[in-house]
Amino acid sequence: MKQLTVISGKGGTGKTSLVGAFAALAENKVLADCDVDASDLHLLLQPEVNVKEDFKALETAVINEGKCIKCGVCMEKCRFNAIKDFKVNLLSCEGCGVCTIVCPVSAVSMHDKVAGESFISETRFGPLCHARLQPGEEASGKLVTVVRNKAKEIAKEKNSDLIIIDGSPGIGCPVIASIGGVDQVLVVTEPTMSGLHDLERILGVVAHFKVSAVVCINKYDINPEKADEIEEYCKEQGVRVVGKIPYDVSFTKAMIEGKTIIEHASEGVSGIIKDVWSNVLEVLKDG
Ligand code: SF4
Ligand code: SF4
Questions:
Q1: Residues 24-36, mean pLDDT to the nearest whole number
Q2: Is 108 in the pocket of ligand 2 (CB under 6 A)?
Q3: Interatomic CA distance for residues 141 and 24, integer angstroms
Q4: 242, 274 in Cβ contact below 8 A?
């Protein structure tokens, strides 16, 4: 079983549209939406949730008001300033447990904190593992790992050949969690100054984790010179460009209809994306 992660330097590069298209084209696969901070693959795939589980990121302290003698020691010792007026602010508590140790009357205990939910769903293109992180929570890397592990379990059960992972934009913790140990990374970029800069950073991260990367330039025709520059840069780095996709309003139309671009139009830009997919498959097979 192979794992492919699709990432981009920032949001809005068309990454999720491309993953949706791959979902329509790939056979015998499991899909994993690891863009847990701002997932939108579900808008295209309209999943039917079969299994929902709470995601517990860390423990937080809870003060038993009945036991508390209001000595104030916990407030003084909490270095995250998470206790005010003898109550713990769950968003500030880092779960270090110091307050449970210093409390003279054992009025503080640690409890699991629900930071989000993970889901196993069915879509018209097969199983999808996905998740939702609650606003203000920061454990997105850990939640990505939960989603990836669930996708692996399903892929094993169903004897799937491939897991397609929609990764987060950027180079932070969730991205690292979504590329670790995969067979291939596809970086979606666009021909802008920041696109090239982001690409350089992201290829650096991917190389650090010793994962093979290929690049797809989306909307290449909005700035053909910059697209050439990106291609040249990739050539210098020994990174294959598996496709150049022109700007096409069909992507937006398909998104509005809740369809993938492949379902929306069988010709035009869909043909180019089919070529990108067959190049990605070729690289995956060789890898
Ligand atoms: S667990 Fe640590 S961070 Fe949370 S309230 Fe207690 S001392 Fe503060
Ligand atoms: S240390 Fe214990 S008794 Fe003192 S204020 Fe905190 S919870 Fe209350």
A1: 94
A2: yes
A3: 27
A4: no
Asked if residue 45 lies in contact with residue 128, where contact means CB atoms within 8 angstroms, the answer is yes
Pocket test for ligand 1, best of 84, 87, 89, 93 (most atoms within 8 A of CB): 93
Q: Note the pTM of the prediction, 2 decimals.
A: 0.86
CA-wise closest residue to 58 among 105, 86, 96 = 96
Name the residue among 148, 233, 145 with its Cα closest to residue 189.
Answer: 233
74 lines ligand 2 (CB under 6 A): yes
Q: How far apart are CA 16 and CA 42, in angstroms?
A: 10
Measured in Å, residue 116 CA sits from the centre of ligand 2 at: 29
Burial 251-266 (b: 16+ CB within 10 A, else e): beebbeeebbbbbbbe
Distance CA 202, CA 80 (A): 32
From 198, 148, 182, select the one nearest 9 (Cα to Cα): 198
- What is the per-residue pLDDT across 122-179, written as a single tens digit (0 to 9) for each? 999 999 999 998 887 776 888 999 999 999 999 999 999 999 999 987 777 888 899 9
Strand 240-245 relative to strand 108-123, pairing: unpaired
Let me know if 41 is exposed, middle or buried by CB neighbors in 10 A (0-12, 13-18, 19+): buried
CB 165 within 8 Å of CB 4 = yes
Q: Residue by residue, what is the 3-state secondary structure of 211-257?
A: CCEEEEEECHHHCHHHHHHHHHHHHHHCCEEEEEECCCCHHHHHHHH
Gap from CA of 100 to ligand 2 centroid (Å): 9
